[in-house]
Amino acid sequence: MFRPKLPTMPQPTGLVAPPAVVIEPTTITPGTPATPSVPAASAPVAAPSRTTVQLTPGTALALVAGGTAVVLVVGAVLVSMLLAVAVTAASVAVCAVVLRSLLASEAKRR
């Protein structure tokens, strides 16, 4: 009655086929390292042209203002989260003091 009954694994009821793909082990033979091919220096090749970013005083001011705004927003969010945690901790502390006072006054009445 108190011994658990373990289920038995059911046996397959149909045709059991072997796996379709059999993977054979292979040996790894080290090869010779290939030498990198060096292109012929027939003519000087110009570097690919890149677009240069020019910072004008207006764009620099916009970048500074954008960075300052991001820092202020992130700071405000973090400070508000810290304030929420502090308010919650203070309210829990007040509740604990009130409960302790109620329990102590109840013990004095008896």
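(the above was protein one; protein two follows)
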Amino acid sequence: MKKCTWALSSPNEEQYHDLEWGVPVHDDRLLFEFLILEGAQAGLSWSTILNKRDGYRNAFDNFDAETIAGYDDEKINALLANPDIVRNKLKVNAAVINAQAFLNVQQAFGSFDDYIWQFVDHKPLHNAWNSHADVPASTPASELMSKDLKKRGFKFVGSTICYAYMQATGMVNDHTIDCYRHAEIKTKYS
């Protein structure tokens, strides 16, 4: 079975590709998890974040936004000393700020899911790329999402991060057309 070339770099990436990447996510907790992980990935490889994902889940209370929104300096300092996550002060502080903004969006829209999926008209976009080199780093939709998230107080949500988020959460299906997952996802989630 042919797969996206990026997925062949490590067993972790292959499993993520085969089971999660491009599958539409509508669970607010998981949408928040991906928001934090994509922000943490800025400037790093996705494999680094995947390798630390369990560490993030443990360190960040399984991505419970209400709990994270209340983190104090003591908790932030403990996170900055935790080798199981990316120990970057800006990124750790952004997770707390983003949790607070996330809760505000949930309150305003009923769910984060209702809010975030509006950027693709509440249905996944199925692209048809011949190779991974054809996949854009950002799109007009990710630009719009980025601007709106920033306006609402979110951090580490540039257009490129937003597009990676859209790919991760299945808002876009960017599996290459020769990858077996492209057709599977398109068939199941059209």
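Reviewer note on protein two: The chain has a mean pLDDT of 97.
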